[in-house]
Structures
1.
Amino acid sequence: MKDSQCELCDRVDVETTIHHLTPKEMGGTLLPTAQLCRPCHKQIHALYTNSDLVERELTSLPALQQDPAIASFLRWIRKQPSSSLPKLRKSQRVRGN
């Protein structure tokens, strides 16, 4: 969807995708979703596994915005133009810990 606002970083005039706040595989198919810009959506999935999101209770926008791992990214991405599509890498931490 074009000309939208990312609900996580608040940038406007960005292409958004639907993010299931509770992962579908964890029962979130019919639960709330959020419209996120592609960089924010990719960063969430680069930082957290689906299990992480549920176990750490990162299933709401305020919870995500307050988590230190994504908060530093949000401070940075908010300064980027809406046309910016930065390259992101998966976290190097071991999954499941």
Note: Residues 16-77 form one domain.
2.
Amino acid sequence: MNLSKLNITRIVVVVFFFAIAVSIASATIGREIYGATKVSLLSFGIINFSGYLFFLIMPVELAFIYYLHSHLSLFLLNIIAIVTALGAQLIDYCIGRWLSASFIDKLVGRHRYEKAEEEIRAYGNIAIFLFNLLPLSSPIILLAAGMLKHPIRQAIFYSLLGLVAKYLFISIIFF
């Protein structure tokens, strides 16, 4: 099996970010599940923020459902979910806007962000809204929006609409 230098670099980057994701989950929700500490808005905020960064893959919707069944305020939980998600997506957008395509290609892979670019070019703000409403890769779509220099106000506004709808829907169904 002949691995190119690029493939080895990708594997190392993926393993590194996977280790970060596991560490974050273990230090927050893992401790809470095993009873060492009580659930908190801070731990949820850390997990949710991390999960919306394009280079970390975390099941933020499942974490939200887990935290819904705690003693935390439903209103505050929704606010924290939306604010941390928007903050991370703003970072994703800025990374896409400021970093070179070749660097992002090495980090994420050309196919993933090209697919997101196609969605934005074809559907624009509707794609941003739907990717945030559904459990799809909304961080990648914001990264692509930044790369395409999509208007930031529109990207954030439609992200906000999708996130509000998603978290309200999850709250209604699972609370």
Note: Residues 66 and 163 are 18 Å apart (CA to CA).
3.
Amino acid sequence: MKETAARLRRAARIARVTGRAGLRERLANKGDFVLAIVNGVTYQITVLLFATVVFTRFPPLAGWTVAQVLLVSSVRLLAHSVFVLGFTNVREIPYLIRQGRFDSFLVRPAPVFLQVCTSRFPLNAVGDLTVAATSLGVCLSMLRLDWTLARIGSLVLAVAGGAALELALALCVAGLVLRRAGTEALFSWLDTVIGAFGNYPLNVFPAVLRAAFTFGLPVAFVAFYPVAAVLGKAASVPYGPALTLAAPLVATVWLALGGWAWRTGLRTYTRRGW
């Protein structure tokens, strides 16, 4: 127990030191600092505006009102922001390899995953979090829900579970990238799929996509199923109301899979001649 606590304290110290170094590096270029924050704000606002325009131009779809749809989008964006703040550098592994920095992580006396996550401070997370939190506040004021402790807990768990799922999927791709060159495009594909389909109720998609995002790539568990539980709409979701409570289990399973993929990738990784 003492040894585990000591390792955690050491990891926390390393994270603080490398995190501060990464932040100082980003602050050295004021233009990059401003543009990174603006990029985060612009991306999040664009996603929300698109969802708002689509669902205000049409009557409620599949029993979901505009405010309810925007809650799905807001939770998804907030979960994504949490992921970006802590773990987005996992998606930078192809660039770290090309720069030769990743190989240096392998010989340092610190966890490789921790070094990757703290190698560069994600300034765009500031804009992401600001817009996502603002959007969530607006949605909640529109919905006027009765906020019990159970409902608050469900909402917090929804955001945490969505961030965990994004991390798990990024680790799966990272493990593949470490094993095989030329698979880097999967990071962009994954980000596009979650961003394009994770902001809307699963009910509005064709049956093949509903099945794919529930039993294949777990996009629907990032926000849709947990938000359905928060809104009390469990009875209306595809494949049964039990799935609205399954997001933590799904996130745990995928994190285990992502951890295995990451460890396997590290064991089989060899230096590449970029």
Note: The two ends are 43 Å apart (CA to CA).
